[in-house]
């Protein structure tokens, strides 16, 4: 596995190593069929796994994020990180760190950052995807829009992955799980085993 464990450990993020390795394995299989896409780049932790797999197959990972941080990462909120606050623009900015992560991992030939809101990028999207990883904003409205705008681009046999699936509300927000269950109820996907909080569906 061509993963830089030190860089992964040094990169800020909320992805468990087991989930990351699962992302790597799914992307390794998917990348033969077409590009992978993630929503929610943050500082690049998941892109290290997905990108390494895509690179191994000569593939591409599109990574979408406005890089202003999600709701819960704003000043005064639970996941605010002062190191990611840009005093000049006076707002959150994770793009500089994301870019550094990708450069340090020598993934600039594989990972294509798309710096905007996912619904804006979706307005012109036409490329079929082999893997879609939804890990952007975690409000119900945001997860729903990410699913509605992007899941239709998955090719048959493609993977739809949701991060932060919590069965119990006391463990975490429920929006990703609700949309994951809605996707499953659509009948368009088969369910694969969940890895920690990583929900895995496969497009029929
Ligand atoms: Mg997450």
Q: What does this protein look like?
A:
The protein is an alpha/beta fold. The chain has helices at 5-10, 17-30, 45-56, 95-104, 118-122, 140-150, 175-185; strands spanning 36-39, 61-64, 85-86, 91-92, 111-114, 129-134, 154-162, 189-195, 198-203. β3 and β4 (91-92) form a beta hairpin. α2 packs parallel to α3 (45-56) and α6 (140-150) runs parallel beside α7 (175-185). The radius of gyration is 16 Å and the shape is globular. Residues 14, 135, 163-164 line the site of magnesium ion.
**Which ligands occur here?**
magnesium ion
Strand tally: 9
Secondary structure: helix percent: 25-40%
Share in β-strands: 15-25%
Question: What order do the helices and strands come in, and which of them pair?
Answer:
Layout: H1 5-10, H2 17-30, E1 36-39, H3 45-56, E2 61-64, E3 85-86, E4 91-92, H4 95-104, E5 111-114, H5 118-122, E6 129-134, H6 140-150, E7 154-162, H7 175-185, E8 189-195, E9 198-203
Parallel strand pairs: 1-2, 1-6, 2-5, 6-7
Antiparallel strand pairs: 3-4, 7-9, 8-9
Helix pairs in contact: 2-3, 6-7
The structure holds magnesium ion.
Magnesium ion (MG) binds at residues 14, 135, 163-164.
């Amino acid at each position: 596995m061509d993963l830089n464990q030190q860089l992964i450990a040094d990169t800020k993020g909320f992805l468990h190593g087991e989930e990351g390795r699962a992302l790597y394995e799914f992307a390794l299989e998917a990348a033969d069929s077409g590009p992978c896409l993630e929503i929610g780049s943050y500082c690049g932790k998941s892109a290290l796994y997905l990108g390494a797999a895509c690179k191994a197959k000569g593939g591409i990972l599109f990574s979408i994020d406005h890089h202003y941080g999600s709701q819960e990462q704003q000043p005064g909120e639970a996941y605010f990180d002062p190191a990611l606050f840009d005093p000049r623009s006076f707002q959150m900015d994770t793009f500089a760190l994301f870019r550094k992560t990708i450069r340090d991992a020598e993934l600039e030939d594989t990972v294509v950052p798309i710096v905007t809101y996912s619904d804006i990028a979706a307005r012109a999207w036409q490329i079929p995807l082999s893997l879609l990883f939804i890990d952007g904003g975690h409000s119900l409205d945001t997860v729903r829009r990410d699913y509605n705008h992007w899941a239709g681009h998955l090719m048959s046999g493609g993977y739809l992955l949701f991060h932060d699936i919590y069965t119990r509300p006391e463990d975490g927000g429920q929006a990703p799980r609700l949309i994951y269950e809605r996707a499953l109820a659509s009948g368009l996907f088969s369910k694969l085993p969940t890895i920690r909080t990583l929900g895995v569906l496969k497009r029929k």
